[in-house]
């Protein structure tokens, strides 16, 4: 179950990268690169900062193939993707929840402080998109838009709260990912957003 | 004494990141991220390239708290910060001197060549600001403005000159940080700048 | 022979970085930084992701000196560089072939899958330029222009095909670098380019 969701998340991030690159009129290599960076950039940053090298996608080829296939399919069906927009948004949200969880787990495995683990989870889930926006020469959209990273941070606190209460691991995973996904869905539906600060 | 100055430097960099992010009208999460990246980005880059992982801020939580508190205070008092501009500039300059020193020391500890250590010192002190500017979609200001990184490079040479003369460690630290701070202050007061090259 | 070509490649990348920075009217430190990042950024990214730290240029000072000298010479002779444009293009192409080879070899040495090695080779050769463009606040030119990274990817497949056929190492090196250089030259001469995808 975990791995199916992991795949869906990777697919969603790859698709979002592909669409961003097409909009910038990049060539085929540019599209592939942006797609890869969006899908695996957050995890790569996390692994490099912890010292888990070679980074995950170098050790497990499935990420490579998933991104490749997703990108090709996204290019072929790009005109129908607006119809699929809701499913892409759902995948992306699932990816957000799941990638946060992976980051949290890696932090715990490296014996880091809960606050650092929460940062790692958020970086895993959000910085692929940040790198995508930097490569496309834009200010990262998650610094400006609706609740996104905040959902990951909140999920991280839930994770450690339940861990502290000594709950069952499956329940912790489900609640963490579930709360991230719920907050993100509610934020989009209810148009929540973080305040901007004016000078 | 070292750690107090280290704190002041981190505070100064966090404040400068916060102000840059507010000017770009980012939301609260964007401000926090830019603030963190400015304060710990240079050291993170340094640690990752040497292989000191998990990187420093993951092992010593004080950076996390210092940045968090500085950011919150900078947001609250943002309207009075222009009055504080001189003190922020002073903190930033102290941070510059000190972060260079930390980078130099790490390079020496990793048994690297003096020239590489000087590069590491400069990266530690300056690349947080470079990353801040990239995230804000600007050409890094230190590539264009007055003497900044040059002060770090100069300080690095002082450091190894005095080390070569076998002077006392405290004296070396003081002279290195002192020369960087002095050069930077003089550069701003006297409006020194590096030449730009025209085609 | 290998090291002479390696030097030529580094020189070419440093020169291309210097020219890009001059065009952006950066100051001397900005020019030096962009020059360094262009020449050693791809290899640094590769080493950091594999976990080969301290990264190569920290262990072998020759890169440092080559970049420094190239940058100074490029600044001095910047007005005559248009006359030298063909030789710079040739160096850059040689660098492309060679840096890909270095990346492939490092991947093989780290016991990674061929597809990952090909990615590493491409990253080594192309991401210095990507970092240069990000620092100059541009969308990376290799995502938009003629065949560049594609030549590296193609060369990577040649590399593993010949390795699979158990050919002599020197022959493999020559054929790999040769095919990358040939494809790149042909692409520029014949104005080949990858398709862009329109929405």
Automatic annotation (TrEMBL), chains A, B, C:
Ranges that cross the membrane: 61-77, 89-109, 115-135, 147-165, 171-189
Boundaries of every Glycine transporter domain copy: 4-78, 90-163
Family matches, as InterPro entries: Gly_transporter
Membrane topology: Multi-pass membrane protein
Pfam families (alphabetical): Gly_transporter
Compartment(s) where it occurs, according to its Swiss-Prot or TrEMBL record: Cell membrane
Keywords, sorted A to Z: Cell membrane, Membrane, Transmembrane, Transmembrane helix
Predominant subcellular localization, coarse grouping: membrane
Tree of life domain: Bacteria
PANTHER family: INNER MEMBRANE PROTEIN, UPF0126 INNER MEMBRANE PROTEIN YADS-RELATED
Family classification: Belongs to the UPF0126 family.
Entry protein name: Trimeric intracellular cation channel family protein
Gene source species: Paenimyroides ceti
């Amino acid at each position: 179950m975990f791995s199916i969701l992991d795949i869906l998340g990777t697919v969603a991030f790859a698709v979002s990268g592909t669409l961003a690159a097409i909009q910038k009129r990049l060539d085929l290599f540019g599209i592939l690169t942006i797609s890869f960076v969006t899908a695996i950039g957050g995890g790569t940053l996390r692994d490099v900062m912890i010292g888990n090298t070679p980074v995950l996608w170098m050790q497990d080829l499935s990420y490579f193939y998933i991104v490749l296939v997703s990108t090709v399919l996204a290019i072929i069906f790009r005109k129908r993707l607006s119809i699929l927009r809701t499913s892409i948004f759902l995948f992306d949200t699932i990816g957000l929840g799941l990638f946060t969880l992976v980051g949290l787990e890696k932090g715990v495995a490296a014996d880091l402080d809960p606050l650092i683990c929460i940062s790692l989870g958020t970086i895993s889930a959000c910085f692929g998109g940040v790198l995508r926006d930097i490569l496309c020469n834009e200010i990262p959209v998650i610094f400006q838009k609706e609740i996104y990273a905040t959902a990951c941070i909140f999920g991280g606190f839930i994770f450690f709260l339940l861990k502290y209460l000594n709950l069952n691991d499956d329940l912790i995973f489900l609640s963490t990912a579930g709360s991230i996904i719920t907050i993100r869905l509610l934020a989009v539906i209810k148009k929540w957003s973080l305040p901007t600060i004016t000078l």
